[in-house]
Amino acid sequence: MEKRHITIKDIAKEAGVSTATVSMVFNNKDKNISKATRDKILKIGKDFNYIPNSIARSLVTKRTNTLGLLVPDIVNPFFPEIARGAEDRARESSYSIIICNTDDDVERENNYLNVLSEKMVDGIILTHSANRSDEKKGLESCRVPLILIDRDYDLENLIGKVLIDNTSASYDGVSYLIEKNYKKIAYIAGPLNTRTAKDRLNGYKKALYDHSIEYDENLVLVGEYRSQWGSDASLRLIENAYDIDAIFCGNDLIAIGAMKTLGEHNIKIPDDIGIMGFDDIYISSLVNPELTTIKQPNYKMGYEAVNMMIDYLENENIKEKTLILNTDLIIRKSC
Amino acid sequence: MEKRHITIKDIAKEAGVSTATVSMVFNNKDKNISKATRDKILKIGKDFNYIPNSIARSLVTKRTNTLGLLVPDIVNPFFPEIARGAEDRARESSYSIIICNTDDDVERENNYLNVLSEKMVDGIILTHSANRSDEKKGLESCRVPLILIDRDYDLENLIGKVLIDNTSASYDGVSYLIEKNYKKIAYIAGPLNTRTAKDRLNGYKKALYDHSIEYDENLVLVGEYRSQWGSDASLRLIENAYDIDAIFCGNDLIAIGAMKTLGEHNIKIPDDIGIMGFDDIYISSLVNPELTTIKQPNYKMGYEAVNMMIDYLENENIKEKTLILNTDLIIRKSC
DNA sequence: ATGAAAGCGCTAACAA
DNA sequence: TTGTTAGCGCTTTCAT
Predict the structure, then answer these.
(1) What is the mean pLDDT of chain B?
(2) CA of A45 to C1' of C8 (A)
(3) Interatomic CA distance for residues A284 and B208, integer angstroms
(4) B66 contacts in A (CB within 8 Å)?
(5) Which of B19-28, B131-140, B200-209, B267-276 has the highest mean pLDDT?
(6) Is B143's CB less than 7 Å from nucleic acid strand C?
């Protein structure tokens, strides 16, 4: 436990060469080093169980091969897929990921930005705090390359953004319902204070419009992204005897609540009422495999964000890019 | 973007002092530095937007304030809570967490161990690969302080372990059912190839034994941790007309599948059949709030593991510790 | 109360 | 093909 770590100096001495030579060997800048010394050095490295000190290397190269990933909360089932996609892409290029939970707290977010700066991460992938509003200071002064994911936000000095096209996602979903001959489609939405939620509502409206179906604001119920709200809202819809034949849901929790309530009232899915929802948190597929959903490409979002970052870091690719990912319509039994 | 970073050298020059003084000020080793110079240095730091380079610091202090966290897959809903608990405790002491997904692959795990070693993380928290069996090499030669969580494993040179008492967890769950007057309790289990699963089965047996209920191996069905298996197994139980009045489930997916099937057969819960399961992946609480479950203290597991690690790192607390966490019985409607 | 200087382990010119 | 050397930015004795 206590014994000093082996350094290239030790190896150099042991091999009777200079540290420069050893360094080159371990960095595969071998081109003009004799196979003999190369092999000797490698062997000694193995024998002594040499572990390079990448901190020392980072100090001179100014690269840490580490990225920061800021998400609101990894426990929110929306984010693990993003983290996994990010980590997978990172690993492909030998980067590591430092994960940070911001809880949508601007101060925490700024603090992490600082810490990551100090740790010299090569880049930061960030789902910016929903509460940031106009408090851009921390973000704008961030000297580390930044890529935004999921939530759009106006900012200078960005490397890029990776977003989801929520408008066309709900447009596609609602259109699909319409083409299945559901004409009276209610929308149980989550809170409308995010761009995401507004886009989804717009997609719903646009789909109706393009199919010459009149928009009826009584069929749009705005509440929370919780299954209880799905239950309550669907109950309201059926109790008020609205003439509906389908329900489009703001996310999967809502959809699950709605399905449950409909079931309790012996309303058959999809014969009596069709149901569709965003698979925001991937519960549908686990628990209600019969629910037709719009699947978020979260894994891809994380993967592409890191891909964009590494592209920037390694190829000096600086043109700002905005990558807009499409969702998938997962067709199952219920519609 | 291109301008050189400010260093303590710049600040020292600007303030007309030595780098040593500047360093001490920024490290709060102020005791004998005049308030005047202190303030001057701090002001210059602020004005120049000085960001300390913790890589350089790490090189000399041999501390990175970074921990590694190895989990099989952050997308598996079992792990985000662990990661969150770990990150929360880490943040309290200004540590960061590098997250690594091993996919239960020994080679990947060993590779991460290496990378983290090179990055000089101060410690590693690890859910060891289920497939490791006797391939201890990578782990045993790891020079970084190691703490095991969730899955037990025999290993020298450990700082400690944080585990869950699965035996007494299922013992408590089954006992609770028995005390609620359910006497014929079936057990739908996941695969028995892990210590965890075996412990749970033993707890079940022990609870029966202690309550003088005879163990009937026909009532124990072994399958997968999937809701489909919960459906299939419960179907088998009712079709074979076993005389049961409760089902104890190996995890929540199984329980959800079972509940669904029972519902489809108009079997009432909990009147006809009581149900209980391990809330392994926290789906119950989201989707089936009426399901009584045994909640895993995963957040706490992550939190305590990092706590133990930091205790070791900062207080040289070396006695090997095994912390065994208890589960909680979450009593809801169904039992 | 402050400064000088050595050095953490490594890389990268530049020399040889 | 290999060695010399000068740092990277910081901490830390030991002087003063």
Answers:
(1) 90
(2) 20
(3) 36
(4) 98, 119
(5) B200-209
(6) no
This prediction's pTM: 0.91
Structure token pair of residue B108: 């990947």
CB B205 within 8 A of CB B233: no
Measured distance CA(B272)–CA(A132) in Å, rounded: 52
Task: Write out the two tokens for B335.
Answer: 């039992």
Nucleotide at minimal C1' distance from the B12 CA? C3
Beta bridge partners of A97: A67, B99
Name the residue of chain B whose CA is nearest to A96's CA: B98
Decide: helix, strand or coil at residue B71: strand
For B166-295, give the CATH class: alpha beta
Average pLDDT rounded to a whole number, residues B246-256: 91
Strand, coil or helix: what is A101? Answer: strand
The token duo for A290 is 């019969």
**B75 in contact with nucleic chain D (CB within 7 A):** no
- Under an 8 A CB cutoff, do A54 and B1 touch? no
Please write the tens of the pLDDT for every residue from B172-220.
999 999 999 999 999 999 999 888 889 999 999 999 999 999 999 999 9
pLDDT tens column, B53-112: 999 999 999 999 999 999 999 998 889 999 999 999 999 999 999 999 999 999 999 999
> Which CATH number applies to B8-52: 1.20.1250.20, 3.30.280.10, 3.20.20.140, 1.10.260.40?
1.10.260.40
